[in-house]
Amino acid sequence: MADYYQLLGISKGASSDEIKKAYRKLALKYHPDRNRDSKENDDRFKQVTEAYEVLRDSEKRSIYDQYGEQGLKRGADGAGGFGGLDFSDALEVFMRDFGGFEDLFGGRQQRGGSRSATQGQAIKVRVRITLPEVATGVVKTLKVAILDTCERCSGSGSADGAAPTPCATCQGSGEVRQAQRTVFGQFISVVPCRACRGEGRIIEEPCPTCHGEGRSRSERPIQVEIPPGVTSENFITMRGEGHMGPRGGPRGDVLVLIEVEEDPRFVRDGAHLRYELPITFSQAALGDEAEVPTVDGTVRLTLPKGIQSGEVLRLRGLGLPELHGLGKGDQLVRIVVWTPERLTADQEEAIRTLRDLEEPAPEKLDGDSGRSIWSRVKEAFTQA
Questions:
Q1: Mean pLDDT of 10-37
Q2: Residue 10 contacts residue 22 (beta carbons within 8 Å)
Q3: CB-based burial of residue 333 (10 Å sphere; 0-12 exposed, 13-18 middle, 19+ buried)?
Q4: Is pLDDT of 207 > 80?
Q5: Residue 94 pLDDT exceeds 60
Q6: Which string of DSSP letters, residue by residue, matches 204-258?
Q7: Which of 2.60.260.20, 3.30.43.10, 1.10.10.60, 3.50.50.60 is the CATH number of 267-383?
Q8: Within 10 A of 89 (CB to CB), how many other CB atoms are there?
Q9: Mind listing the pLDDT tens digit for each residue in 271-281?
Q10: What was the pLDDT predicted at 58?
């Protein structure tokens, strides 16, 4: 169990500003946009975000200080409770408090001197895919509401196409200095210029369509290629596909969060798939062949004579691919011997005859050191 204060590298008496500053530093270090394909850094990013979400909230922090992480889990369904974060939640927290990627990875305007164009904001979309699509990979076309270049002014924001002029208030810097006198002396702070909204430029005659923004709302399709083996914790960053920046600024990104739909036939365990196959007593005793569904279709599975309920048969390579092409998992078929609830007269007579002929069940199963079938099943699933 991790210590939230240690995760953020702060003391228990840390202020709100210290907590936010520590989280921002670590979030930038472990952010997935800077650490491609690193599961370890993804986990670390999620952990520091969870610690930040608890410690920034005075009520959650008080519960954590008194009862630890378990106290938060016990109260997860009530006021002030906390049930933990998944990976997409962690990304949402980061984008909520720090404005996404544009102001942290070089997209915002530079302070002082020559002003760079403002990058557009990132767009977050969710896409649902099926388990068969996880197996093969898929290309999805998404319709995205987006801020695009204004057709009337071609993105300039000006009604007559004239270039913006430097702001007379801040002389084009986008910032103004404010002096404030206090009992401790004079304090000077630097704030964005209100006249030009921190851009350093003024449009004399704004475009009547976009009101000087240089962009207007539209909807356009975006194609995203989803590789095989993804999970609901994965996401894809599409560079330069997001909102257009104001007055010709570069586009932001599109963050595509993956949601894998549950398949009622299978239970997913990483790259492995688990499936329960009900069979009759006669199939179990005499052996048989049965059709088993897979993500790619169906296969015929040979059932050996005397197979026991709960035994697991492995179909190698018929699971899901590992992300980045590192192999494929297996499909694990758990046998369940089905007992009919109602019998016809002929069936009941046949079973009574069998009962008179069969031997008593052994106290221990042969060939497995006397262990119960349930311990064998548990071991089979654990090894898988």
A1: 83
A2: yes
A3: buried
A4: yes
A5: yes
A6: SSB-TTTTTSSEEEEEEEEEEEEPTT--TT-EEEETT-SPPBGGGBPP--EEEEE
A7: 2.60.260.20
A8: 15
A9: 999 999 999 99
A10: 84
Contact 7, 47 (CB under 8 A): yes
**Burial (Cβ within 10 Å: 0-12, 13-18, ≥19) of residue 217:** exposed
Closest of 141, 143, 45 to residue 92, by C-alpha: 45
Report residue 381 as tokens. Answer: 């699933």
Choose between 371 and 83: higher pLDDT: 83
Phi–psi pair at 177, nearest 5 degrees: -100, 135
Q: Is the pLDDT of residue 92 over 60?
A: yes
Measured over all CA atoms, what is the biggest interatomic distance in the chain, rounded to whole angstroms?
A: 104
pLDDT (tens digit per residue) in 137-157: 999 999 999 999 898 888 888
88 confidence band (pLDDT: 50, 70, 90)? low
Distance CA 292, CA 315 (A): 10
Domain regions of the chain by residue span:
1-98, 165-202, 267-383
- Mean pLDDT over 82-111 rounds to 57
Position 312 scores a pLDDT of: 96
Which two structure tokens, joined as six digits, stand for 185? Answer: 């002396």
Compute the 3-state secondary structure of the chain and give helix, strand, coil in percent, each to the nearest 5.
25, 25, 45
Mean pLDDT across the chain, nearest whole number? 81
Residue 200 is inside which H or E element, if any?
A: none
HEC profile of 24-69: HHHHHHHCCCCCCCCHHHHHHHHHHHHHHHHHCCHHHHHHHHHHHH
Burial class (CB in 10 A: 0-12, 13-18, 19+), 380: middle
**Residue that is written with structure tokens 């963050």 in the block:** 255
Domain over 1-98 is classified CATH 3.40.640.10: no
